[in-house]
Amino acid sequence: MASKSTFLKFKGLHINLIHAKGASDVVARDMLKGEVDFASLNDPYTFESKVIGFPLSFRKYFFDYQPKAGFIINNHDFNVFTLELSRFFVALDVQVGGKTFILISIYCPPSGDLEDQLLCLRSLLIKFPNRMIFIFGDFNAKSSIWGPRDTDKRGRILLDLIIENDLLIVNDSKSLPSYSCPSKGQSWIDLFLLKNVSCDNIISWRIDDRINFSDHNFMDFEFFLEIFKKIPKNKSWKTSNLNWFDFKASISSISDSMENCEMDDVDFSVHKFQNAIVNSCWKNRRKHITIGKNAIWWNRFLEMERSRIRALRRRFQATSEPNERIRRKIYFK
Length: 333
What we know:
This is Endonuclease/exonuclease/phosphatase domain-containing protein. GO terms for molecular function: catalytic activity. The protein has eight helices and 16 strands. By secondary structure, the chain is α+β, with helices and mostly antiparallel strands.
């Protein structure tokens, strides 16, 4: 069976906007340029508890009151179904290019119990163990695995979750910091995690410090996947495998039924005639009856005994000296 390949490719970004309108405007500008298919946003800019500043053509997935995490979707080929929509956690089921995957945006405030903040994420990972999952979030957790800082308590909790669920960390510990503030220093707290997706499919991942009016930096990435589809072969028939007498009778009845065909129905009639021929070939093919070869009384001991007897027979037949043949014939009789 032959196959052909297609490509699934999209670009995304993640950033904590710290509720800054200027940062929100930068994201909207980049998306309007067509450079980004979707954006994961933490602490977005809101007015009267609603996320604003994006064109109406963009789809927004945020909680309806003071949201802290969510998505802006710019790619109209994304068929999106909401799995979870809360203030700090948003999960979307996305279908595109024949593939289905889950996008997750999560925000974990520095105050509060991280174990409790990760409950929604943990529950969804258990519910969908075999799905491709992309996780973006400001976890406010430090670890030497994804940054140069020592691992803190929150980092250990997050690492336990990552190990338990076999997640992959896309972040590079040698990258620019995802958080940079003159008064508070630098930190590597924004993460991109994968489940059932190879890091080889993530290309051009980077932390970009372009001006954005937020103390967090952009996390940009591009996803690329080659999809192979099998092409079924057309059914072919061997004329030697047909019962010609029955086939001829069947075709005659088909042709008789087509005599009153109208020109207006010629396409339908051709399709009907073609299907009738295929069905006739299938109906009048020669049946191959498979005779069972496995006797119920046959067992492994008899198999070994048969092999031994055959070996003795080959040895006897290979003997050319007359006296030795007579001796073996008497001995093995």
